[in-house]
Queue: 4 jobs
Job 1
Amino acid sequence: MSTLLTFAFRANASGSVSVPVLVPRNIGAGDHTIKVCWAALCRASATLNVTD
């Protein structure tokens, strides 16, 4: 299981979100999930595949 990291984000008027994500050096290889959450619900997610 990945360590939970939290980043602030903002959406523009059309709902598009963009935020830089700092991937820790020691995250480990494999699939990690990035989620966009607010108001206690996660509304979007993407898989980040980290390789050695």
Job 2
Amino acid sequence: MSLWIQLIACGIAAASFSVLLHQPKSTILVSSLVGILGYTVFLGLRQSTLAYFVASLLIGLICELAARLMKRAATLFVTGAIIPLVPGVGLYRTMLYVVDGEYSNAVQTGAATLLGICGIAMAITISSVVFSAFWHRKNTKRGASC
């Protein structure tokens, strides 16, 4: 599939999920653009387990920054932007292999999918913690000097 078609579909998926969750209209475009950027990084790193982590970390950091700048919750941005990275095909193939009795393929695909999911979860957690600590320290120093 063409890269441009994938990126357009990625943006539409992120925007659609944002609309489905009733996000404020001002956050939908940002979520879509961040989702496209994250998916581009994911494709650039050849869709490996590390790619899930790095792309999710980038999404998490940009969403945290956007949340601070737009005075919104970071969850609004992250939920829509992370959707293109969710390894739904891996979950589907794992279940298909189980139903077909191909247990070795099911274990291999399931393990890769779980590693991707863990990479996403760890990256979002790390970005939130790191950004919160940095932002808190920055605001504390500014408040102390006044």
Job 3
Amino acid sequence: MPAHMKELSVRTSQREEMIDITHLVRDFAKEAGITDGICHVFVPHTTCGILINENADPDVTRDILDALRVLAPATANYRHVEGNSPAHIKSSLVGCSKTLMLANGRLCLGTWQGIFLCEFDGPRHRKVWLQVVG
């Protein structure tokens, strides 16, 4: 089974943000030239994540970040000495990878769905690893 891999470099600019990377993943899937298969998106970091959700209304991403702040507030009785426990918790809730189907050479996403890199401990330089398998 041929596999195609790529590492993306994404620079975040805020402490917490959601960056739409749909176009980058879509371009890579097209470049891979595989008609039917899967595309796996993974971040090798413990304080960011990958999320699929609505990318039409920016209020959705703001609401998601607000809700995550409630679940993992900036100040609490955290033990982790680096001071970024909320980022680790948010990353654990969101997850570090997503697998998408490829059909007819295209990513299978719903009309309003987009793929987001979720930064919880920025600004930073982040890697996103992509793999397409057919």
Job 4
Amino acid sequence: MPTLALDHYLLLGAALFAIGLYGALARRNAVAVLMSIELMFNGVNVTLVGMSHNIASPVPLLGQIFAVFIITVAAAEAAVGLAIVIAIHRDRKTIQLDEIDLMKW
């Protein structure tokens, strides 16, 4: 079974990060922006795991350990972000980012 080279991991991670960045900048829906940020986190995770797999390190699973920490932060970000979106939706009746102005009550 052929193994993947580091280039494959880096290309996939960069593609995921670029798609997530485009989605975060181009979307107006708050939930879509949160999903794009999660996609960016997953691109970083793929890169870290690929680097750990292909580069000799004193700690063999260092990339996987960092990936678990990023997944934990992403879960916390999703929970807090969705709570904020729900609170704004209850108050403003919309989750479109260009229609939300928090300075006006």
